[in-house]
Amino acid sequence: MDKFYHSVYLHEERCIGCYSCLKRCPTQAIRIRGGKSSIIPEYCIDCGECCRQCPHHAKRCRRDQFEEFRGDFSYLVALPAPALYSQFNHLTDVNIILTALLLSGFDDVFEVSTGAEIVSTATREYIAAHPDQWPLISTACPTIERLIRVRFPNLIDHMLPILPPMEVAAQLARERAVKRTGLPEDAIGIVFLSPCPSKVAFTRAPLGLKKSNVDRVIGIKDFYPVLLSHMKEAEKNIQTVTTSGRLGKGWSVSGGEAAGIRSNEYLAADGIENVIHVLEDLEDEKFEGGLRFVELNSCSAGCVGGVLNVENAYLARSKTKRINQGEPPTRTEETDLGGHTPEDFGWSEPITYEPVYSLGENIFESMGNMEKVETLLETLPGLDCGCCGAPTCKALASDIVMNTRDASIGDCIFLTREIT
What CA–CA distances, in Å, run from 334 to 108, 124, 129, 172, 390? Predict the structure, then answer.
């Protein structure tokens, strides 16, 4: 399995090399060469920021299409992300959406928000038992996991070693389906309705486990019209399907996960640029002692801000608050765990540092190349304008020293202008 699998990709025919994506990529994974952008796969963390920023829709997200795989399984289970509920207007009962999922071709529904409540319980227990690892960093957002893995190696030991709610829900959903139907596990299709590309990438190249429990991933915005077509019918005969309360459903917005730890000693940040600032401060130990938990969401406002959603992120956040007003705090009981305990949903595989930004095969080569980069930087203007096709002067210097991505000193238009 490719550890650098990516759901985000370039639709080259649509790209005009407009530089919109270049300056917004948080990991400097984009270059412009020959009038087209390209994505450096080992740098990309599938945050979807380039998809959000590209005015020509040249950055896209790989995901599955329902009609193409529905015949591959004998029994289909939908895993709706909590963000799904905030995509509809005037929603009075989430069971309407869950009933619409059953009417649209799924045989069963298992809420990811139920998995979120289980993860909240496991998180509280882990935080209490491991004060030596404080602050613990949430691992619910795959983009954050990937970002720490390639850029913040000193924080890996602070990552919460618990599977994300999607995986917990998928495991329990499959076990329940096998028990109900008697079918073999591979005859049951677990389908996640995703708000973002990073969760698509996670199912193909998971972190913390060998193989994802999710079989297919469809975008919320792709399935949204199908659900709309069944909403009126669902309202006439609402089935009580929901098994989660406002704690689990609240995971869709920034701060929702932190609410589940039942402590005020937390920090919650959203938006990839804000997240990077927080991680830098964590690495520099700028926070005072006592901070127990850090919740980080790469998308602004939380998962409701994912690029595979329909609704405006901030309007969706207010809708989430309204939807949760009538919900109990939680509906998940021990009987819902199928014989499991929260401790059963920890990582089975360690996450290790991936030195993708290394300038050499060893420390001596890296130091030598770093000196070359610094020397070359002295000749560059330091404007970080991006006109050379690299996001910064340092990125251009690194590309030149490492002899990668067809970079040359002549790419700097300011130096070229002085020479001519």
Answer: 21, 16, 20, 13, 53
203 Cβ contact list (under 8 Å, min separation 6): 192, 212, 214, 217
Give 279-285's long-range contacts (Cβ < 8 A, gap of 24+). 279/147, 279/148, 279/151, 279/152, 279/155, 282/135, 282/137, 282/152, 282/155, 282/158, 283/152, 283/154, 283/155
C-alpha 82/C-alpha 100 separation (Å) is 15
Distance of CA 309 to the CA centre of its chain: 13
Please state, in angstroms and rounded to a whole number, the distance separating the CA atoms of residues 213 and 30. 31
* Coil/strand/helix, residue 340: coil
Which alpha helices (H) appear in 182-312, and where do they start and end? 197-204, 220-236, 246-249, 256-259, 272-283
pLDDT string in tens for the chain (420-residue length): 456 789 999 999 999 999 999 989 999 999 999 899 999 999 999 999 999 999 999 999 999 999 999 999 999 999 999 999 999 998 889 999 999 999 999 999 999 999 999 999 999 999 999 999 999 999 999 999 999 999 999 999 999 999 999 999 999 999 999 999 999 999 999 999 999 999 999 999 999 999 999 999 999 999 999 999 999 999 999 999 999 999 999 999 999 999 999 889 999 999 999 999 999 999 999 998 889 999 999 999 999 999 999 999 999 999 999 999 888 888 887 657 777 887 889 999 999 999 999 899 889 999 999 999 999 999 999 999 999 999 999 999 999 999 988 899 999 998 887 655
Instruction: Give the whole-angstrom CA distance, residue 164 versus residue 169.
Output: 9
Convert 126-153 to b/e letters by CB count within 10 Å (16 or more is b).
bbeeeeebebbbbbbbbbbbbbbbbbbe
DSSP string, 37-105: EEE-TTT-----HHHHH-TT--EEE----HHHHGGG-SEEEEEE-GGGGGGSTT---HHHHHHHHHHTT
Note the Cα 267 to chain centre separation in Å: 18
What's the rounded Cα separation, in Å, for the pair 376 and 371? 9
CB 241 within 8 A of CB 325: no
Q: Which residues pair with 266 in a beta bridge?
A: 293
Rounded Cα distance between 64 and 200, Å, is 9
Q: Report H helices in 91-219.
A: 94-103, 112-129, 142-151, 165-181, 197-204
**How far, in Å, CA of 152 to CA of 407, rounded?**
27
Q: Tokens 């913390």 correspond to what residue?
A: 208
